[in-house]
Design goal:
Layout (H helix, E strand, L loop, with lengths): L1 E6 L6 H12 L2 E6 L11 E4 L20 H11 L2 E5 L1 H8 L6 E3 L7 E9 L15 E8 L3 E3 L2 H9 L3 E5 L10 E5 L5 E4 L15 H11 L2
Parallel strand pairs: 1-2, 1-3, 3-4, 4-11
Antiparallel strand pairs: 5-8, 6-7, 6-9, 9-10, 10-11
Helix pairs in contact: 1-5
Length: 220
């Protein structure tokens, strides 16, 4: 199995993601600088990590969405390659148009960093099949702009088509309908605010994040 982690200026969870995928799945993981115009051949998984791409200037994820490599990431995702955007990576996926909606400032305008309980609202996706019917998992959040927003029509469509994958049991940032993670209609692009890369071994407080990476590659 082969995976790639995209590295933007300001990413601070890129190596976390690399280690998490390697230890969880045994996959070969390449670090790909944002200025590249090609991705490694034969990728089974692409990860857009958390952090503060371009210092979060202008708007979180907006500048990263214009990085040269994102044209290749978008093309790969549209071909069906499993693609995960975590925290800032989720913001990038919305900015580049691979996922609907936007991430706004947290409701109380404060950075939130803590373990969080999540409901697995759709366990039938390529990213959640490994949870095998478990309804509750634990990960960690760390964001200042994690407040998911979309208009009611879009939210209704996401709910109705099973595209809401994770939901907060206690909403930490004001996200619409407590949404923590969504997938695209094709089911191969996932954006989530909580960090599976900070919850992939019991020593980190939870190993639930490892199952997400394992699921993504198991169906490759």
């Amino acid at each position: 199995m082969k995976a790639a982690v995209i590295v933007f200026p300001g990413s601070n969870c890129d190596r976390d993601c690399k280690v998490a995928v390697e230890r969880s799945t045994g996959a070969q993981v390449d670090m790909v600088w944002h200025g590249e115009t090609e991705l490694p051949k034969g990728l089974d998984l692409i990860v857009l990590p958390g952090g503060f791409s371009y210092g979060d200037y202008l708007r979180c994820g907006a500048m990263a969405a214009l990085s040269p490599v994102m044209g290749e990431v978008k093309a790969a995702a549209e071909r069906g390659v499993a693609t995960v955007g975590i925290c800032n990576g989720f913001q990038v996926l919305t900015e580049v148009g691979l996922l609907p909606g936007a991430l706004l400032r947290n409701e109380k305008l404060k950075y939130v960093c803590k373990p969080i309980a999540l409901e697995v609202t759709n366990a039938q996706t390529r990213f959640t099949a490994g949870y095998q019917g478990r309804r509750e998992v634990a990960m960690t959040i760390g964001n200042g702009e994690g407040n998911y927003f979309a208009d009611d029509e879009t939210l209704d469509r996401l709910e109705g088509e099973g595209q809401v994958v994770f939901r907060y049991l206690e909403n930490p940032n004001g996200s619409a309908r407590a949404i923590a993670g969504i997938i695209n209609k094709a089911g191969n692009v996932l954006g989530l605010m909580p960090h599976p890369d900070r919850a992939f071994e019991p020593e980190l407080g939870s190993a639930d994040g490892a199952i997400l990476f394992q699921s993504a590659l198991a169906s490759a």
